[in-house]
Every structure is written in structure tokens, then in C-alpha cells.
Amino acid sequence: MEVISIKFKNRGKSYFFDPRNLTIRSGDKVVVETSKGLELADCCSGNHEVDDKSVILPLRPVVRLATEDDLRVERINKKREEEAFGICQQKILEHGLDMKLVDVECNFEGNKTTFFFTSDGRVDFRELVKDLAGIFRNRIELRQIGVRDEAKMIGGIAICGRPYCCSQFLEDFQPVSTKMAKVQSLSLNPTKISGSCGRLMCCLRYEQEAYEELVKKVPKQGAFVETKDGYGTAVQVNLLRQTVKVKLDGSDDSLHLYKSNELAAVPGGRPRDGEAPPSVLHYVPEPEEEEAREDEWAMPVLLASEQPAEETAGPEAKEKKRSSRRRKRGSKPKAPAAAQPRPEEKSERQPREKKKEGDKGQHGKATVKPVRIEAKPQGEAKKPETGENAARKPNRRPRHRRPKAKPQGEGKKE
């Protein structure tokens, strides 16, 4: 999809617009259609193709390239903004409001004026809005912003000698913490890692992911480590070069320099007196040995005659081996395929049925009939079962029943 990139007042975030068959170059001024109406903007990147997934449809169109009349209207609006800034500051002092005016913006059509200010808390500016609306005779909007947005609007030069990132290319502000400065081995003095807005510099976040990956490969400073020359203590760590200076135990005060793959941190730190420290250093093979190891993984193809006895054994030997494994695990062995019941036969999982001695079938064999279990009254005691039924019935735990509540009117029997 063909688009152009546009910035309003040549600062902050850039937006995609539909050029509508117009050839627009970088640096041209154009009139575009926005949700607030027509606006005059600067083109920061001319006609170019972008992926459809990176564009939110529908795109706002470009109305036209800026003409002389449009540029004249822009100059008039700038004068109005300067006048409105001075008038608003005077009214703020008259009303005694605790707020700092940052910027004034008049829209291209001239029917709305927006005042941007900062404040530590909430401000009741209703009377101020009434006075400004009576002076300018158009819509008045007062918008409270943060200190970072203030630096973005005003602009300036950072301590690195370049313009502020927020006023150049940053689209939104990401959270920054002092932990990032600590990971990057920077000074924790707030005056050295803060920008002109008083908050931590946004550039602390640029290399945070790279430092987090480097920290995982190097032991911390002061850790008890094992090297090829013995055990020692990590004195100085260089994350970018992935090197560590170690003071070996039992040697002089001289420091030895090692790479990150030549040492390893001992878990648990330095052992107590009399205990031998565990060995955690693994040998890193050379490229030639690595190739030899890769060849070891190639499994030779065996013929049927060369295969081991376990694989060439028959099904009976395999079944015996499986049954021995099941006995060790404590599981019940499965019946062989020939002994398994067919679908027509009754399986063991079906409910057991009771046989009656008196009933016999056509061939003189006892027939099986379902048993009807009748509920017995609570007062009767269960009789012990004997014979065939007692052997089939599993032992069950007796149920604990609550004693019957005696009626209140009855007394104790003597």
C-alpha cells in the first residue's frame, strides 16, 4: 500500500495518510483531513510502500499540497498563538491558579484554541475558561499534560549533544526504572541519569534487553567461582567484553583475567571451613571434537542376524518379560489374547448375579437370575451370610448410624 508519513508541527509521532495519487516529497507542507477537521502538517517521508498489516484502515486522505493562502493562514495562526499565550498567563496570575502554561495551539480553521499546562494537582479553571472565551470568541480547551510531554513540546538539547529523543522520533513514553541503570553499571546518582524533564532518561531503555542477556552469561561481582587454575573470587566484571577478573585463593594480590566460558559460579557460594567446594566447571570442546561427537550419534544399521537376542525373541519371551515388569510395578497382568472374552460372552466387569439352588435349565444346569435387594428396617440386625454368598460378597465397612433421638416426654426406664 502506498502511503506518506506526516508529523504535526514537525515533532513527535508520525502518522500514515493516503496520498490519493499525489506525488509528495519529504519536507513539503500538506493539508490533511483529521478527526478535528483540516490541519496543516509537514511531510517527513514521501510516497513509499508499506505492509498492509502495519496500516490501520481506513486511512485519512491528503486534501492538497499547501498553497500560498494556506501558508498565510499558518502565519496568522502563529501570531494569534503568541498573543493568546501572553493573555492566558496574565489571567492565570489574576485568578491565582497553581499552573504553568506550556504551549498554545490554534487549529487551521481558526474556530478552536487549545492551552496546554502542567500542574502538581487538580486545578479549578472554570472561571479562567469563561474569561478566555469572552476574549477570543471561539472554543477554548485547557489540557493538563505531564513533564515529559512538556519537554517534548518545547524541545531542546540533551546531555549527549543531540535533540531530545521524545521530540524527534519517540512515539510514546515507556516506563524507565533505576534497576536499568544498575544492570548497565551506570551511576545511581539521580542528577546524572535524569533528563531536563526531571525524570529518568528514556535512552536507558534502548540497550536494556541486550544487557539482560549478557548478565545471564557472566557471574556476579563478588561471587565464588571455579576456574581452570583453581577457585577464587570475581572482583571485576565487564559485561560488554564478557570478561571477569578473578583473585585466586592462596595466591598473591594479582588478578587473573578470564573469559565468561572459562569459569563458572559455584552455587551456594564459598563452602565452610573443611568442606571441599563442588566442581561445576565443564570443559568446552574444540570444534574438531564437536564434529567427532556428531559422528557418534550416527547409529549403524544392523542386520536381522546381528540384532540382539531381545529383539529377535518370539512373542512368548516378550510376554514373559512384560509380566515380570508388571509384577515389579504391582499391576495386574493382562490376559493373553486367546483367553480374553469375546463380545458375546459376559465380561468380569458386569454385575454379579445370584444363583438359586432350586432353579435348573433344560440341560439340568442351574440358571442365573437377577437378585432383588430388599430394604430391611433399621431395627433388624443383619444376619451373617454363609455358604456361596458369603464367599462372593466382599467385606464392607459398617456404616456409622446416628442413635435415635428419644422423645422428650419419655423418661428413663428403671
Q: What labels describe this entry?
A:
15 strands; 11 helices; GMP Synthetase, Chain A, domain 3; five-stranded antiparallel sheet; single chain
Describe the structure.
This protein is of the alpha+beta class. Among the domains are: 2-66, no CATH class; 73-145, GMP Synthetase, Chain A, domain 3; 178-214, no CATH class; 218-265, SH3 type barrels. It is 25% helix and 20% strand. It has 11 helices and 15 strands. The radius of gyration is 44 Å and the shape is elongated.
* Poorly predicted segments: 288-307, 343-348, 353-368
Cα separation of the termini: 105 Å
- Profile the largest sheet: 5 strands, antiparallel
CATH class of the domain at 73-145: Alpha Beta
CATH architecture of the domain at 73-145: 2-Layer Sandwich
Q: Helix and strand string, N-terminal first?
A: EEEEEHEEHEHHHHHEEEEEHHHEEH
As laid out across the biggest beta sheet, the strand order is 2-1-4-3-5
> What is the count of β-strands?
15
Radius of gyration: 44 Å
What spatial form do the alpha-carbon principal axes imply?
elongated
| Strand content bin | 15-25%
